[in-house]
Amino acid sequence: MKILIVYYSMYGHVHRLAEAVAEGAKEVEGAEVEMYRVPETLSEDILGKMGALEAQKAFAHVPVSTVDKLAEADAIIFGTPTRYGNMCGQMRQFLDATTRLWTEGALIDKVGSVFTSSATQHGGQESTILSFHTTLLHLGMIIVGLPYSFQGQMRIDEITGGSPYGASTIAGGQGERMAGENELAAARFQGKRVAMIASKLAK
Ligand SMILES: Cc1cc2nc3c(=O)[nH]c(=O)nc-3n(C[C@H](O)[C@H](O)[C@H](O)COP(=O)(O)O)c2cc1C
Fold first, then answer.
1. What is the pLDDT of residues 53-91, one digit of tens each?
2. Are 44 and 158 a contacting pair, CB within 8 Å?
3. Is the Cα dihedral 173, 8, 21, 106 positive or negative?
4. Cβ(62)–Cβ(35) below 8 Å
5. 81 Cβ below 6 A of ligand 1
6. What is the Cα–Cα distance from 163 to 192, expressed in whole angstroms?
7. Each residue of 89-144: pLDDT tens digit?
8. Atom 4 (ligand 1) nearest CA
9. Which residues contact 174 (CB under 8 A, 6 or more apart)?
C-alpha cells in the first residue's frame, strides 16, 4: 500500500506538517510512505526577493514528483500554503497537468486528503482545503478529512490550526511561527487515518 505526500512549501511550514503527516501514515502496518514536492514555477530571482531561498534549502532533498507518480499511489495527501484563500499556483499548475490521468480514470477510488498553512488564523485555511477537494472529486478520489475524533481541534486555550477538513498551521505574518504540538498531532492523525482507510480499501 503506497501513500504519497505531495506538497509545496515556500518557507517550510507546509514541509513541517508534511513530515508529521508521514509519521502518522507510517504507523499503519503495510504503509509505504513517500514524500514529494511539486515543481517550482518561480525563478530563483523571484524566490530570492520573496526571502524563500534559505528556508527551501532545508527540504531541497525531497524529490520532485511527476504527475504520473500519482497513479502509483493508493492514497495521496496533498499539502499547500494558502494563497488568497486558495491553493498555491505551483500546486494548481501540477494538478492542471493531470489531464491524462483524468482521461484514463487513473485516480478514481484512490484516497485523497489535504492539509494547509496560512499566515493568519482566519486567512482562508478552510476555503483552501475545500476548494482543493473540488479537484480531487473531479479526479474521482475518495476524500478523507480530520474528524472530531481528533479532539485537539476543539482547543481554544491556544492558537491552533486544524478543522474537520484537514490539518493546518498558522505561520504568522512574517512566517515567524512554526507548527505547534497540537497542529503536528492533527497532521499525524490525518496521515494515520488516510493510511488506515487506504489499507481497508486495498483489502
Ligand atoms: C501570494 C501570497 C498569497 C497569500 N495569501 C494568503 C491568504 O490568503 N491568507 C493567509 O492567511 N496567508 C496568505 N499567505 C501567506 C502564506 O499562506 C504563508 O506564507 C504560508 O502558509 C507559509 O507556508 P510555507 O512556509 O509552507 O510556504 C499568502 C502568501 C503569498 C506569498
1. 999 999 999 999 999 999 999 999 999 999 999 999 999
2. no
3. positive
4. yes
5. yes
6. 16
7. 999 999 999 999 999 999 999 999 999 999 999 999 999 999 999 999 999 999 99
8. 83
9. none
